[in-house]
């Protein structure tokens, strides 16, 4: 069967996290670079579809194609390693320590950003004919996204920062659910279906994904968005990263690990009431509470 049971699934999650910790620097960065680039292209595709059709749902329905491709090709997003790699540490796999977990996260961040930034430059070139004309409608939309998701949050102060953080939490709750759901099947079709649903939810709901934003915000700056690099870092990327970490680890990695790898003791099964030899329930004795005296004397 192509279905993987939850206890087996958690074992695969821990193994995957361990494998990523011990992956070479070269392979880690290359895989992260390709993941960031493919996800950025998928984001550009989704925005293009939304602008041209006027239907945000159409773009959200098609955005997961990039996520599915990068996962099936074995590339790594920071949002995924936020969830999987710490499990190898928690499970006390030999050689896995806090330093190796942070090393993995740092390398994946660098690779994701490099890939997403390269695509941001390339798409800005295509939207402006190498910066010789004003951005086309898709480029203008990307610039407005950058403004709305930086200074738009800043306008609300602390409330905006909290909203941004919560959207980051909700995002990686869904994205990491997609990563894990892909492991629940051994068939390509099963993996794609498992990934598609939560990724659709995250994109359509406008949750904040740190890697997608590595494409949207540099693109927005190049395409005339009215915000700064510091606006991007303080009022989007850093809070989003923290929210993504909390969402993926707390709501997916740790919950799956706790209930399927380190399960609590089961409750005792209640024993059935004793019965008499002929199979009928025992008769109440005289004076038994709840039995009328005249019935007990009969």
Explain the overall architecture.
- This protein is mainly alpha-helical.
- It is 71% helix and 0% strand.
- Helix 2 (25-53) runs antiparallel to helix 3 (56-62).
- The N and C termini lie far apart (64 Å).
- The model is unreliable at 288-298 (pLDDT under 50).
Kindly summarize this structure in a few lines.
With 298 residues, the protein is mostly helical. It has helices at residues 6-21, 25-53, 56-62, 64-72, 78-90, 98-128, 137-148, 151-154, 157-182, 188-204, 210-222, 229-260, 293-296.
Layout: helices, strands, pairs:
Blueprint: H1 6-21, H2 25-53, H3 56-62, H4 64-72, H5 78-90, H6 98-128, H7 137-148, H8 151-154, H9 157-182, H10 188-204, H11 210-222, H12 229-260, H13 293-296
Output the number of helix runs: 13
Low-pLDDT stretches: 288-298
Largest sheet: none
Structural class: mainly alpha
For the terminal residues, how far apart are their CA atoms? Answer: 64 Å
- Amount of beta strand: under 5%
Based on CA atoms alone, the radius of gyration comes out at 27 Å
Features:
298 residues, 13 helices, disordered C terminus
